[in-house]
Every structure is written in structure tokens, then in C-alpha cells.
Task: inverse folding
């Protein structure tokens, strides 16, 4: 059996048996992987591989939500993430198709879907990276690298044009993500610093509510006594 046949099976069962070797190949040698990836061969195998990556991604996020005592996040990660991930594969394939053709590449929806599906190998790492602040940005940068390498190798997009255009877009998105993360962390720090004041205010409001309730009960008793 040839190497492409071994690495790129056409059915779900064979792909599941080769999930780990495929993921390692994508992450460690993306140029060789995508250069040897057939443009055709069906959606079943790459879709199965993507699903095999999205499931641990969802499980890891769910466990992290559980650690932080976010029950809603736990349920949402297990149920919503795989669904959104499947939808994201189709949207991602459409984007890759559009961009590749806009840059002069030889693209089809199937080949674009295969690129996005196999690039999902980075998903579990992206989930684990949530533990360390700002690390997800670096992982996302490598994800953009995988996508750019893939469209060059599979869709024959001119290398210089791909890095100039797609690399520029990736850089803007990563910078935006960096500042968004920094703002979110600052806001979280401020909220944490204000937590004692919020707790004290909550206690005062609760105390006032109890006093008002007692006053209302006393007034009601006095009115009942006068009626008698």
C-alpha cells in the first residue's frame, strides 16, 4: 500500500484507526502532509478526522469549565461545541475556497473541506492552551500557518502572494486577539479587586431589605391592633 493510501483513507473506520498518526503528521510536517493530500476522495474520512479532533476539544473545554465551577459552560461545551464545530467546517471550507480562488488558486469545495478538516488537528491543543494566558494566541498563529501552507500546497496559490495576503490578515487577527485578551484580563482583575466592595454592598442591601420587611410586618401588626 502506498503512503498516500495509508495516510489518506477513504472510509471512516480506516481514518479512525489512523487518527493519531494523521494528527502528528499534520502538526509536525504540514508541508509534506498537504503536498501529498489528494484533492478528492470524499468527505467521509476527513470529516471523521475532524470530528475525532473536535470531541476531545469539547471535552477539555468542558472539564476546564467544571474546574472553574461553570456548570453551564460544562454542558454547553459538551453539546454546543461539536455542533458549532461541524458548522464551522462548512463555513471554513467556503472561506478557504473563496480566498484560494481570489488569490489565483485551483480550488474546489471538496479540497477546501479537506484542508479545514485536517487542520482541525490543532483543536485539542487549542483547548489545552486555555490553561495558560495568551498561549491560545500562539496556537492560533500556528493554526494560521497550517492553513497558509495548505492553500499553497493543495490549491497552488502563489507562495509569495499567499504569505503577503493571508499572512497579513492573520497578523491583524492575532493582534486584535491579543488586545482583546489583554482587555478581558484587565477587566477580570478590576472585577476581582472590586469583589469585596460588591460583597459588602450586597450585605448592606440584604440588611436593609430585612429591616424594611420587619418594619412592614410591625406596621401591619399595629394596623391590625387598631382595627380591633
Result:
Amino acid at each position: 500500500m502506498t503512503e498516500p493510501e495509508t495516510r489518506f483513507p477513504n472510509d471512516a473506520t480506516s481514518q479512525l484507526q489512523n487518527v493519531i498518526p494523521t494528527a502528528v503528521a499534520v502538526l509536525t510536517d504540514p508541508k509534506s502532509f498537504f503536498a501529498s493530500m489528494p484533492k478528492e476522495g470524499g468527505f467521509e474520512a476527513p470529516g471523521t478526522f475532524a470530528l475525532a479532533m473536535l470531541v476531545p476539544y469539547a471535552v477539555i473545554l468542558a472539564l476546564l469549565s467544571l474546574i472553574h465551577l461553570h456548570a453551564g459552560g460544562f454542558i454547553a461545551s459538551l453539546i454546543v461545541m461539536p455542533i458549532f464545530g461541524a458548522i464551522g467546517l462548512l463555513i471554513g471550507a467556503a472561506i478557504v475556497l473563496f480566498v484560494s480562488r481570489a488569490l489565483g488558486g485551483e480550488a474546489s469545495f471538496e479540497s477546501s473541506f479537506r484542508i479545514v478538516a485536517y487542520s482541525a488537528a490543532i483543536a485539542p491543543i487549542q483547548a489545552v492552551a486555555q490553561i495558560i494566558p495568551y498561549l491560545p494566541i500562539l496556537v492560533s498563529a500556528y493554526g494560521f500557518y497550517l492553513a497558509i501552507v495548505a492553500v499553497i500546497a493543495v490549491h497552488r496559490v502563489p507562495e509569495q502572494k499567499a504569505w503577503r495576503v493571508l499572512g497579513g490578515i492573520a497578523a491583524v487577527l492575532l493582534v486584535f486577539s491579543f488586545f482583546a485578551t489583554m482587555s478581558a484580563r484587565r477587566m477580570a482583575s478590576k472585577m476581582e479587586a472590586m469583589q469585596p466592595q460588591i460583597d459588602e454592598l450586597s450585605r448592606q442591601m440584604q440588611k436593609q431589605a430585612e429591616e424594611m420587611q420587619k418594619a412592614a410586618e410591625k406596621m401591619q401588626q399595629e394596623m391590625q391592633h387598631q382595627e380591633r
Notes: The CA atoms of residues 116 and 188 lie 33 Å apart. Confidence is low (pLDDT under 50) at residues 1-6. Residues 3-184 form one domain.
